[in-house]
Design brief:
alpha+beta; 11 helices; 308 residues; 4-stranded antiparallel beta sheet; elongated
């Protein structure tokens, strides 16, 4: 007989496992609440919806992380230059490694836009207000922010070109205000004329490109583009998050029936399906379990109530 339930999984402390003071199974389960099939399906649907809502924010985090990786790579090479760490500087080709991070960043930008467009249409409908608002916000940023236009088409251009950065130069110079201080710099640039002369680059953008310095700093424009994406993302998620409120509340309300410490990271609330009786449900591999997104549910409730 199939049984549905609400309960917890308690994981064994890794510290106790290492020193041999705990010989219990790696995880134990407790299912004190029996659910009907309809109740289980309702909680499953709520869980799926909460995760769907947070999926939009998770993807944006990868965009931010790619930008952070780019800056970390640049800073690592600059620090190695300052410390004269030849081994680090020669371990990987500097130009190629920075190009890699820039390409990853540009790819994540475009992936975010494509993901948002597709999933907003799938989740809320092609003619929904959210889809229209997203497209309008993108158009506003495109029309009013040169960096947005530049990076948008630079990413498309990278599909044909591959390597974008033409020059990576280290330099050191005396500080103008303090002659005793030596400053160090790592300059990354894309040649303006190469873009203007290349037939694969967006023709309509070339008059604006011609007004830029001969050596264009792509990092500056990448972070201007990120600021645009942050504005778009913030406004869209402010409307997406409340759509998960009822699902989030349903999860939190049911959890009040469980006697567990929500601050204990070793205990995870779950919904279960098993064909074993109460006394035989001992091991985690004997049942199907789905973790409940408590943290996400609480954030949805808090966000919705604070912005009501």
């Amino acid at each position: 007989m199939i049984r549905y339930g609400l309960g917890t999984i308690t994981y064994r402390s890794k510290d106790k496992e290492k020193n041999g003071t705990d010989q219990s199974p790696a995880a134990s389960i407790n299912i004190p609440i029996t659910l009907s099939k309809d109740e289980y399906n309702s909680l499953f649907k709520s869980t799926k919806n909460v995760r769907k809502v947070f999926g939009y924010s998770y993807l944006f985090s990868t965009v931010q992380w790619n930008c952070e990786d780019l800056i970390n790579t640049i800073n690592a090479y600059l620090n190695a230059f300052i410390k004269k760490d030849a081994m680090f500087l020669t371990a990987r080709d500097v130009s190629l490694n920075i190009n890699k991070d820039i390409l990853n960043t540009l790819t994540s930008f475009r992936f975010y836009l494509d993901y948002m467009d597709k999933n907003l249409k799938d989740d809320f409908g092609k003619s929904s207000g959210l889809v229209k608002k997203f497209n309008d916000l993108c158009s506003i940023e495109y029309d009013n922010n040169f960096s947005y236009r530049f990076i948008y088409h630079l990413r498309n251009y990278a599909q044909h070109k591959g390597i974008l950065v033409n020059s990576v130069n280290f330099s050191k110079f005396i500080d103008k205000e303090n002659p005793l201080k030596i400053n160090h710099n790592l300059r990354i640039s894309i040649n303006r004329n190469n873009l203007i002369e290349d037939k694969n680059f967006k023709k309509e953008l070339k008059p604006e490109i011609a007004k830029l310095p001969e050596n264009i700093d792509p990092v500056e424009h990448i972070f201007n583009w990120l600021n645009s994406l942050e504005r778009i993302h913030q406004q869209i998620t402010n409307e997406i998050i409340p759509t998960g409120f009822e699902s989030a509340k349903a999860i939190i309300d049911r959890l009040e029936e469980l006697n567990f410490d929500p601050n204990d990271k070793m205990v995870a609330p779950m919904i279960f399906i098993t064909n074993r009786s109460d006394e035989n449900v001992k091991a985690i591999d004997k049942i199907n379990q789905i973790s409940l997104p408590i943290t996400e549910a609480k954030k949805i409730i808090e966000h919705t109530q604070n912005n009501a």
